[in-house]
Amino acid sequence: MTGYPLDRVHQEVAFLGRHAHWTLNEVLDLDHATRRRWVAEVLDQIAQEAG
Q1: Residue 45: which of 13, 19, 14 has the closest Cα?
Q2: Which phi and psi angles does 39 have, rounded to 5°?
Q3: How far apart are CA 25 and CA 45, in angstroms?
Q4: Closest by Cα among 31, 32, 12 to 22
Q5: What is the pLDDT of residues 27-45, one digit of tens each?
């Protein structure tokens, strides 16, 4: 069984930390699906703001 790539987790933590101002523990407390959903939501908002 292959796990979720660790560099991807690091990217998601950095992204949500930067854009949502969440701590490392707050982001890591999210399950994988929820964390990916939040990343997608923030990306959508950034895209909307960009026009």
Answers
A1: 19
A2: -60, -45
A3: 23
A4: 12
A5: 999 999 999 999 999 999 9
